[in-house]
Structure formats: structure tokens, C-alpha cells
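Lab notebook page, bench 4
Experiment: in silico fold of construct C2
Operator: M.H.
Input chain length: 320 residues
Purpose: comparison with the prior construct
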Amino acid sequence: MRRIAITMGDPAGIGGELILKALPSLAGRTIPVIIGDRAVIDGLQKTLFSDKSFAFRNLREGRPGDIELIDLGMVRDPKPGITDPAYGAASFHYIVEALKLAFLGEVSAIVTCPISKASIHRAGINFPGHTEMLAHYSGVNDYVMMMANRTVRVVLATIHIPLREVPAAISAEKILRCISITYTSLKSYFDIREPYIKVCGLNPHAGEQGILGSEEETIREAVSAARLLKMHVDGPFPADTLFHRVDCDAFVAMYHDQGLIPVKTVDFKRTVNLTLGLPIIRTSPGHGTGFDIAGKGLADPSGLIEAYRVAEQMSSPKTS
């Protein structure tokens, strides 16, 4: 039976609550392996889930319908909603443990609950986010971030960089790699035989033939190169009119908010973050740590449930 790891995320965030709320929807076709701190679970049991009982087995001891738990014992008395380097270190080690299991073949995929970038940085861990961290420890330089729900998939040519740095960060080679990884991943993970991809321009009106910017020439060069490699791709298109009709398998956006605003607007609760190009499968809810609602019982597990469902889909045997 396949196992899928779920990292708890920041102990001060909503990750633990999401996991406990999602558990009835997760176990069955695969065995969830929760990686985190039992103290977080016990604390939530007392404050938010006193009317429920949760049973966990150790790694490799579970059977269909069971939940396994790996307790790293890094947090003793978690306080919700605060930034703390100890919590950053804990969430980092949850991820490292999940990577070990994935590399050893113990789990088929990793689902990550949200981390606090501030806590991670205060712990001396200098990664902009999950995506870059997972790529680093996987030994991968070419990877892309995809945000997806049941309506639309969007991948990003650039990820967590300031907006002023985006034009200089865009190159034909970079965009071509982004298109190629997306195309290959759609075939291998989603069983789409001939993926169709549309690419955004960077500037208003996709540059208006150079009047509003010239970066579209670089994007057009990448699209032409992808076509020569027999990939079905078109663009660049003006981003403000591209997303109103989903008539392709994925869009390529040039920067973070250009792509994430439309996909999260369509279905925020069930938007999933995927890292493509890794030697492992990784998904995550498309939202953050929820510090403002942590510990209050208000967290919605829909994103985690959807991220787990997508991880199951991506790791299942394909027809081709």
C-alpha cells in the first residue's frame, strides 16, 4: 500500500489543525504518514478536539485505513500565531525527514503544510520558500512552481523575487525550460498525451508590438524553440485577457502575482501548489500559515484534502 508523507508545517500555524480535520478524508487508498510533533497534536486535542480521539501507528505499522505518525519531538509547548526560530527549525526538519522517506522509497509523495518564511529565516535557514528548499536538497536546478485547481493550472517562469527583478530574470532559455518541465510533467503525472500550453506576455497588451516593452521578443523566441521540439505551445498573449477562458492544459505566467491571482480567484480553497521537475512528488495547499486564525478552530482543510488527492493522483500508476 502506498504511503504519502504530510509535513505539519509551522507548529504555530494551522497545519496541525488542518491535518486533524482532514484525517477522515485522507486514509483509505493510501496511508498518510504525518511528520511533525506529537505535542502539537496533543495540544490541539485538548483545546479544539476534546470530543474526538485520534489513533496513530508508527511508520510501517499501519494498514489500510490507518494513520502513521513520526514524532520528531522538537516542540514541547507550542504557542499559536507567533514567529519563533524554534518553530522555523522544527518545520525545516519535518521537511528534511519527509525527503529522506521519499528518497528511500518509503513514501510515494510529500504533502507539505504551510511554513513561516519569517520563522525559517530567524532560524538561520536561508530559503525563500518550500520550492527552493526542496529543489536544493533534491540536487535540482531546473524546476517550476505550479498552482492548480480543478479548473486551471498555472506555472511560473519566476517565483519568489521582487517585481523589479523580473524583466532581467526572464530569458529565452529559462522560459523554454519552464515550458519543457511543464509539458513533460503534464504527460507523466496527469496522463495528458498531447499537452497544450499558453504563455503570458510580461508587459501590458503583451508589449503592443514593442511600444510597451520588448521582453515579449524573448518570450516569443522561447515559444518558437518549444515548437521546434514538437511541443504544442502558443504565445505570448496579453495576460489581462488570457485567463477568462481555460482552453489549454496549463498557462505559463512570467511572475508570481500574474499567475497566482487568477488561479486563486477561480477556486482559492482548492488551489494546490506543486513543485515540478523534482525527482519526488510534492504538493501543498495554496495558502499560508494562517497565524491570524491559528488555534481558533477556524481553519478550512479543503486545500490540504485537495493537495493530498492530487498527490495520490500524481503517484498512481499511469495508463501509458
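Observations: The chain has eleven helices and eleven strands. The mean pLDDT is 93.
Next step: discuss at group meeting.
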